């Protein structure tokens, strides 16, 4: 009789503030403004609305010219992920899949139908539903790998929007400085005002270089890091579902999926490698006497 008890999948982790991003921004901006104040300047020296309008308006406009509207909208929606992080680890995914594998081994893969409907991750839900529907294993793997590839492509496009902004901002800042100098040159009769005007003109350059190197380029790299982790987890999910379809022992599936948990941790990977080699040697020593006895 099929077991209808849910496999109790873990709830999808919520979004939490990314302390690295928040603290990094505060440290960068605080260090720059702090240095300015220590040099005898004031925040008023760089608080120029017109410079901000020129740099931000020009940069956003240039990005809009070079980027398709669909990609631009997707990139804007991904901006919160620069400041928020989804705390979903590979070990949590492993435990969830092992729960499904154990139930499928006892009661058949069809028993996971209710569990699949309750899965919050769309990728894992789709892969498991296709497996339950009896799709051919090669076709299932091909379809889900295509979805991973498309997600990676879209993620790269979204990150390139911020990379483009980081490339345009310094140049737009120079344009803003030149425009300021043009206005200064109109009043050369007053030397004191010329000096102040030149100082104000270069604020646009500060905004352009600062926004590129503190906001736009770091945001692009952060989105790429998020994308790599998402692809990593989806590959792990796919391997787990394939193991369930193949009817592998949950222990074997766990051994395969734990490699994803150790990814990026050389110390653990080395220990696991030594541990996996030791039983083989012991098994070989035990196998020799057994073979001799049989002869």
- End-to-end span in angstroms? 45 Å
The count of β-strands is 2
Task: Kindly provide the radius of gyration, computed on alpha-carbon positions and rounded to a whole number of angstroms.
Answer: 28 Å
Q: Count every helix, treating DSSP H or I runs of 4 or more residues as helices.
A: 12
In percent terms, what proportion of residues is strand? under 5%
pLDDT under 50 segments (min length 5)?
264-295
Helix content: over 70%
Morphology call: elongated
Class inferred from helices and paired strands: mainly alpha
Instruction: Write out the strand line-up for the largest beta sheet, numbering strands in chain order.
Output: 1-2
Main beta sheet strand tally, sense and closure: 2 strands, antiparallel
The average pLDDT is 83
* Tally of separate domains: 1
What order do the SSEs take from the amino end to the carboxyl end, as H and E?
EHHHHEHHHHHHHH
Descriptive labels:
79% helix, 12 helices, disordered C terminus, two-stranded antiparallel ribbon, 295 residues, mainly alpha
Give a written overview of the molecule.
This protein has 295 residues and is mostly helical. The chain has one domain. 79% of the residues lie in helices and 2% in strands. It is built from twelve helices and two strands; from the N terminus they run βααααβαααααααα. The protein has a two-stranded antiparallel ribbon. Helix 2 (49-66) packs antiparallel against helix 8, helix 3 crosses helix 8 and helix 8 (137-185) runs antiparallel to helix 10. The chain is elongated and about 90 Å long.
């Amino acid at each position: 009789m099929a077991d209808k008890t849910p496999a109790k999948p873990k709830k999808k982790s919520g979004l939490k503030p990314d302390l690295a991003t928040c603290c990094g921004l505060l440290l960068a901006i605080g260090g720059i403004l702090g240095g300015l104040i220590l040099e005898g300047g004031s925040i008023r020296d760089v608080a120029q609305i017109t410079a901000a309008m020129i740099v931000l308006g020009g940069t956003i406009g240039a990005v809009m010219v070079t980027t398709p509207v669909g990609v631009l909208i997707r990139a804007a929606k991904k901006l919160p992920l620069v400041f928020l992080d989804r705390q979903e680890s590979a070990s949590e995914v492993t435990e969830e899949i092992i729960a499904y594998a154990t139930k499928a081994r006892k009661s058949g893969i069809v028993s996971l139908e209710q569990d699949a409907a309750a899965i919050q991750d769309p990728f894992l839900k789709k892969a498991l539903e296709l497996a339950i529907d009896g799709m051919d294993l090669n076709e299932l793997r091909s379809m889900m790998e295509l979805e991973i590839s498309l997600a990676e492509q879209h993620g790269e496009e979204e990150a390139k929007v911020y990379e483009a902004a980081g490339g345009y901002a310094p140049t737009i800042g120079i344009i803003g400085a030149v425009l300021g100098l043009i206005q200064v040159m109109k009043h050369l009769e007053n030397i004191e005002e010329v000096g102040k005007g030149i100082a104000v003109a270069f604020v646009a350059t500060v905004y352009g270089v600062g926004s590129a190197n503190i906001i736009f380029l770091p945001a692009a790299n952060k989105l790429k890091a998020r994308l790599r982790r998402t692809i990593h987890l989806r590959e792990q999910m796919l391997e787990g579902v394939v193991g369930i379809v193949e009817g592998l022992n949950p222990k074997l599936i766990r051994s395969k999926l734990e490699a994803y948990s150790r990814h990026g941790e050389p110390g653990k990977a080395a220990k696991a490698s030594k541990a996996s080699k030791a039983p083989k040697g012991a098994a070989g020593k035990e196998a020799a006497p057994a073979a001799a006895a049989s002869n």
